[in-house]
Amino acid sequence: MLLYLHGFASGPSSRKARVLSDRFAAIGVHLVIPDLTPGEDGFERSTPSSMLAVAERLLAAAPPPHAIIGSSLGGYLAAVAASRDPSIERLVLMAPAVRLFERWERRLTDADRAAWKANGLEVDHLASGRRRRLGWPFHEDARGWPAFPEVRVPTLCVSGRRDDTVPFEDVEAFVARTPAARLVPVDDGHELADSLDLVFTEARAFLAPFAGAR
Questions:
Q1: Does residue 214 have a pLDDT over 60?
Q2: Sign of the dihedral through C-alpha 158, 139, 142, 32
Q3: Would you say the pTM of this structure is higher than 0.90?
Q4: pLDDT in tens, 39-61
Q5: Hey, where are the domains in the chain?
Q6: Which CATH class, in words, describes the domain spanning 2-211?
Q7: Which of 6, 120, 140, 166 is the most exposed place for a label (fewest CB within 10 A)?
């Protein structure tokens, strides 16, 4: 199975998911794109663990081998999944949100933490196009996950040098710790909006032995 994991406050209808799904479909490769925060209040109640569980249930139900394409938080979760599941043979990570807990923790003041615990954290939810409140358990759960998942499988990382959400240096640090990883730097921001042609070209070549893409 070739699985796509979307990013934070995103969903299966994100531009990256749609573009890559269409491109792979054109060469006969099906990209499975689940909603990692399903249900009416799925986002509000979500945690990294609950999102990862959605992916792992799909992986367990499908015959191996597997490969995962992940964007931002989805890229981080893909790396965590690969560190736990030997059936995952390849990863394509777009601006993977490594150092997840550290980045959130650094920008929170004591007042921010109190407000989040009491009322939830209001964020722009890209998938629904409205403001939604994320519960405090998201941050508490993130504390328990590694800054840099230990990945041993071949991994392709694409990261923008102008990324102001997940610093390029953090992705560099992940690749430096991951012997089977290769970093493709691009002159782009976190969304990689201007780099999707390159992402597909690189991913298609990288996944060819797995997905039969030619």
A1: no
A2: negative
A3: yes
A4: 999 999 999 999 999 999 999 99
A5: 2-211
A6: alpha beta
A7: 140
